[in-house]
Amino acid sequence: MVPSQPTAAESEPDGLEDRLRRFATIWSRAIFPATATSLTRPEFETHLLPLARELQEALHAHPFDTAPATRVGTALVAAHCTDPEALGRTLGVVDSYLVLYCGMEELTAEDNRARCARLQHSLAVGFAQALRERTLSEQEAIARSALAARNDAEDALHATQARFHAVFEGAAIGIGIADLEGNVLEVNDTLTQMFGGLEHHVRSRNVSEWVHPEDAAHVWRLYDELVRGEREHFRVEKPFYRNDGTVLWTNLTLSLLRDAEGTPQYQLALMEDTTERRLLNLRLRYEATHDALTGLPNRTLFFERLEKTLSAGGGARFGLCYLDLDGFKAINDSLGHSSGDRLLVEVADRLQSCATAPGEMVARLGGDEFVALTTGPDTQQGVADLASRILHVLATPIRLEGRELTVRGSIGIVEGPSAGRSPAEVLRSADITMYRAKAAGGNRYEVADPEADARAITRHGLTTALPAALERGEFFIEYQPLVHLGDGTVHGAEALVRWSHPQHGVLGPDRFIPLAEHTGLIVPLGRWVLEQAVRQAMFWQRQLPEGALGGPLRINVNLSPTQLHHPGLVADTVEVLERIGLPPGALCLEVTESALIGADEDLLKPLRQLAEMGVDIALDDFGTGYSNLANLRRLPVSVLKLDRSFTQGMQQHPADPVDLKIVEGIVALAHSLELAVTVEGVETGAQAEHLRRLGCDTAQGWYYARPGPPEQLHMLSLADAV
């Protein structure tokens, strides 16, 4: 019997060594009564501690290897734990307590349990092999001695026959003797019972009648070599049919017996019944390769099948569907995990009904992720049909706890020739494609695209590298001048962050700002940009002659939507300005129009506080957010930055009259609301002249200068001052 589960206090020892000792204590208490040893129980527990450590290290090993568990099974037999009950109790203790005391926190409970099941399997194999070797060695030696004794002197014949009979009939394994033609001459009771208990059904048969369809290819070749005298013995795993038609699995050792002159005379067969152990191994194998909840093949078995599929040559093709349920977390959160599990079981049943053709299989990778694999000559059409069938069967509502739930799924498809691809590569591509389907709205499938995969991998790499890049100082700022359209003087500059990536070179903000927004790194990155820009503006203030430009040189810094919602926006901005000493009026924070569409007072409050301090707020990309122009009155902005799309028509000659009218109207509206107007994307002198005549206040663009180092703006400002 396996000891009862420990209490909460008992299950949380201080360290690994304490947990190992507790495991060894439970183990020794379980198997000591079934062990023939002269050791005391504490001594036996000490003997088990290194074996427990081997199991723990095997459970944690990378890569995972079950060989230590096999050695542990062998060591148990060496320690005289030869009673089958000792093996059963050992497997029970490992099943109940190894993961509890020694499990890996890095792995999921399902993966810990899968590893534990495989360790149990290997431990049982090691125990059985050691016990078999021990038994076969003893019994074979005794049997050989008994048979050889039959040829001894006449005066010892009676004693020899008595000893042979005792060994032959009392052996725990099946023993049979046949002549060189394969006719069975003698069998012991154990072998008779193994075949169903009818001795005449065994004695009267010839060895050649025991052919089985699952015989290994080399079994009968070895047998022929043995009866010809070319080998002395061989050992194989061989199945037989019993008298009732059931299968008997054995470890068979077949030896050649010679007379005193060395001439082959008999065959000696030693059979160990391994049927139950084989069934145990099959059960453990099933548990290690199938999902406990749904009964589907699990990640382990699927990877084995996929690896086998991808290693097949001859122009073989495959198709894989990677399915993730849409909104499953919401079901778990609202109805509970028990309902979520029942939903997964129903989904698994429906998926199995879709993959019934030869070469198709469905597996559960974990959570709400499933995969379906198909092979054949036309997998391009076959995998698309499989994905369509999956979406179709999921469309039927599932009734759960009196409710009808509609399950949707996103599927990523990878299809192509098997050669030249690894399982990890295929799964990664399918996963990326599945998320592309989910991003497109879900309830659909998408087919893998190598270029899209490469972009997704690059995005993932950039996302992962962002935090370290900020710490390593890989970001820098370029500045683009803001020019006063009235007199052409430099009015200020917009700070534009760049990333000097070690592999990809200099990246613009469009490559990494959305990633920083997604990860939350935009807040520390934005604070760094603000501080660097304010520091640079303060440097310009000190370098330029006092009053040279008629006012302070302004610095424009962009704010992302995430920064707008950050509670420390006002405090961080005030702290930077005060510490560096830049007047608030020399700072302008740019906010995109789309970020303020429908903004409530809670969102506008920080901007109002900054505006009241003297910080200018610019509404960037104005005209692209489809906002109500009348809504401008309630926004705390002082500058409109007109999107370049409104002024591109002014680059041609003559200028587009519609663009002129639109810009003229916007400028008139802005000035009536006491808002300055800045135009971005100015690329020609004619465009700049049109904007000046229309009353725009400031402009920026390649016509004046491209974004560059701060020295560029410094030189432009000095030139204006002169």
From TrEMBL:
Residue ranges of domain PAS in the record? 160-230
Q: Which residues form the EAL domain?
A: 459-721
One Pfam short name: EAL
Q: Which InterPro entries match?
A: Biofilm_reg_signaling, EAL_dom, EAL_sf, GGDEF_dom, Nucleotide_cyclase, PAC, PAS, PAS-assoc_C
Give every GGDEF domain span.
Answer: 316-450
Query: So which domain of life are we looking at?
Result: Bacteria
Gene3D superfamilies the record matches: 3.30.70.270, EAL domain, PAS domain
- Domain PAC, which positions? 234-286
What NCBIfam families does the database record attribute to this sequence?
A: GGDEF, sensory_box
- Could you identify this protein by its name? Diguanylate phosphodiesterase
Q: Top-down, what is the taxonomic lineage of the species of origin?
A: Bacteria, Bacillati, Actinomycetota, Actinomycetes, Kitasatosporales
